[in-house]
Design brief:
heterodimer, A: 377 residues, alpha+beta, 3 domains, 4-stranded antiparallel beta sheet, 4-stranded mixed beta sheet, 11 strands, B: 269 residues, alpha/beta, D-Maltodextrin-Binding Protein, domain 2, 2 domains, 7-stranded mixed beta sheet, 3-stranded antiparallel beta sheet, 9 helices, 13 strands
């Protein structure tokens, strides 16, 4: 048990409950005694006329009466003494009696005497403190004795968070947050905690808890981290838009904010396919084996010359035109190189294919929608 | 998860029960004395603090009793001998032989036969101070009374007071009703005189017995009255021989003044 704000408020809550209950109970006892006394005296003399004199006599006797004192089997009761300070009795018409009334109601013949009392309570603060302490301690021990799954979980989280460098108060705060977050976020944080190589893990966990990532985004984060990016850069990559940027000048592609390297020949072909996608020309059908595409061969050769491509590839295109086999080879190279760098995440940036119904030859196109592609020359 | 729920629910219930029980125990309050009210008496103090003597009076009703007490207290003659005046009007059945023999009251208003019955030799310790004239008891009705018989009382709600010691509103009328074989389920017993008169005036009762000097019934149509009994003793005021003879004059004066307020005439003694 720790003495923090929560403990103090629990203690105060118990104390005020005890005090309120004591006041209510002692009031109730006084109420009962006065009612009984009036009724008793009435039984003793039922011929009494209820007059103003009679009521003021009753008031006088009640206010002159000795204070009511109370005891408790343990020490002393919380309310030790109740004295009557001010009494006002009046006659009320016989009607339906209220189920609860703070005033004393006594029946006299056909009339009801309603006696309003102002009571002064003498409280033993020592008893109140001691009893509060007893109740508070026993309840806390009882609660502690019970297994508490949620609390255990929180402690576990908190310990693990402290181990990776959170301060104690922070760890508690984020453990609560972790516990409240969904299973996906919990898994992501757990992964971050176990990954010893990742730097700035505390920052990363704080970020993940404040702005949860989708499963796909988290895959990107893992990829970026595996490439030794800092946590901040990795988050930037993970939260990038789903975009492909092909930059011929710098001979690189940028996928989902992550820069990838491609050799110049596959890069040119990648660019060429992307251009087709952007120009909305439909899927390009592989040229027939006996009839290479001279026109596209010429275009590709010029592109390669412009960006310092391999001489051999340029000559081949100029002499023989664009062949289906060359296209297949280069697509495979793109796939190979991107998969090597991006793993399964490369899949969305590769090709789809279908056999053309009329020519029975294959046609290929980029899976990525045209508006997600940027070309830089 | 269901196990978790089971554990936390049972824990909540258990801790709740323990909390409630301990709260109940620690807020126990045991009353260490009980209050006793003496609502059948009025008292007041004179300005004499030299003595502890009190002047005790017994009267059968608390009507105007506070006024009587105050008048006695403010009287300088009485203040010379007494510190306080206590007027008691407890039910007549509580007045026993012991009360008379011990001279618990310095001044008593009772009927002669009752004093006689309680202490046949009462005259050696009490003497009459004021003797009251006898009085008549009438039936009062909301309809004209042609003849007092069973057929007249049929279907009528009859009011009496639930005090067997009362001559005018219990003993005499009940005896008469029984002689006429009136169905006793027609009788409604009221707690006191106030309530009897009030219920009659509210038409909750059709017919009641009463002494004729009640102001609320003054001027009641004669056709709606009938004699129940006549010349009944109203009792006398007796003074104890413990009381100084010099005070008799003052006490007589005060009693007469009080009886005037009650509209009861007395024979000068």
């Amino acid at each position: 048990m720790q003495f923090n704000r929560r403990t103090i408020s629990q203690f105060l809550a118990v104390a005020s409950l005890l005090l309120i209950l004591s006041l209510v109970r002692s009031y109730w006892l006084v109420h009962q005694q006065i009612t009984a006394a009036i009724n008793q005296s009435y039984l003793n003399n039922n011929t009494t006329l209820v007059t103003g004199d009679f009521l003021s006599n009753l008031d006088q006797q009640l206010s002159d009466s000795r204070p009511f004192t109370f005891g408790h089997p343990l020490l002393s009761s919380i309310v030790t003494q109740v004295s009557i300070q001010h009494v006002k009795s009046r006659l009320v018409e016989e009607s339906v009696a209220p189920w609860f009334s703070l005033a004393v109601n006594a029946h006299f013949a056909d009339q009801r005497i309603n006696t309003q009392l102002n009571l002064a309570y003498k409280v033993s603060w020592l008893s109140l403190t001691l009893y509060t302490l007893l109740v508070f301690l026993s309840l806390n021990l009882l609660v502690a004795a019970f297994p508490n799954a949620r609390k255990q979980k929180l402690v576990n989280w908190s310990n693990r968070l402290q181990k990776i460098g959170f301060r104690k108060s922070q760890a508690k705060f984020f453990a609560n947050k972790l516990n409240a977050s969904n299973a996906g976020t919990q898994q992501q944080c757990q992964w971050v905690m176990t990954e010893n190589l990742v730097s700035e893990r505390t920052w990363l966990i704080e970020y993940l808890l404040n702005a949860p990532l989708s499963a796909l985004q988290f895959s990107w984060l893992k990829l970026a981290l595996s490439k030794n990016f800092s946590a901040k850069e990795a988050i930037k990559i993970a939260t990038s838009t789903d975009e492909l940027e092909i930059d011929l000048t710098n001979r690189q592609v940028k996928i989902h904010g992550l820069t990838c390297q491609l050799k110049i020949t596959p890069l040119i072909y990648y660019y060429w396919y992307a251009q087709k996608q952007k120009d909305n020309l439909g899927a390009y059908i592989n040229p027939a084996i006996n009839k290479p595409d001279r026109e596209q061969g010429q275009y590709l050769a010029e592109l390669m010359q412009q960006y310092d491509g391999h001489k051999k590839a340029i000559n081949d295109l100029l002499e023989n035109g664009l062949k289906g086999k060359t296209l297949d080879q280069n697509r495979n190279k793109i796939k190979e190189e991107l998969t090597q760098q991006l793993g399964d995440l490369a899949e969305n940036y590769l090709f789809d294919s279908r056999r053309d119904g009329r020519t029975a030859r294959y046609q290929h196109w980029l899976k990525l929608a045209a508006e997600k592609i940027t070309l830089k020359v | 998860m269901s196990e978790h729920l089971y554990i936390s629910t049972s824990k909540l219930i258990f801790v709740g029960i323990v909390a409630a029980l301990s709260m109940w125990f620690f807020t126990l309050h045991q009353p260490q004395q009980s209050i006793q009210l003496r609502l059948s008496q009025h008292s007041c103090l004179t300005n004499n603090t030299q003595t502890n003597e009190s002047l005790n009076l017994y009267i059968p009703t608390n009507y105007n009793s506070q006024k009587l007490a105050e008048n006695l207290c403010s009287n300088s003659e009485i203040a010379k001998s007494y510190h306080q005046v206590i007027i008691n009007w407890q039910p007549r059945k509580h007045i026993g032989s012991e009360t008379i023999l011990a001279q618990a009251y310095d001044l008593i208003w009772l009927r002669d036969y009752r004093m006689q019955g309680l202490a046949p030799d009462y005259k050696s310790i009490y003497q009459p101070l004021v003797e009251l004239a006898s009085y008549d008891i009438q039936w009062y009705s909301h309809s004209a009374i042609l003849s007092l018989d069973k057929s007249f009382f049929a279907q009528k709600k009859i009011g009496l007071i639930d005090d067997p010691a009362s001559l005018s509103t219990y003993q005499l009328p009940l005896t008469q009703l029984r002689q006429m074989n009136v169905d006793e389920s027609q009788i409604m017993y009221c707690a006191n005189y106030q309530s009897l008169i009030q219920k009659f005036l509210n038409h909750q009762l059709d017919i009641i017995p009463s002494i004729s000097s009640i102001s609320a019934l003054k001027g009641w149509p004669l056709a709606q009255q009938a004699v129940l009994a006549q010349n009944r003793p109203m009792g006398n005021w007796y003074v104890s021989n413990q009381v100084d003879l010099k005070l008799h004059g003052v006490l007589t004066e005060q009693v007469e003044h009080y009886l005037q307020a009650l509209q009861i005439s007395q024979n000068k003694f």
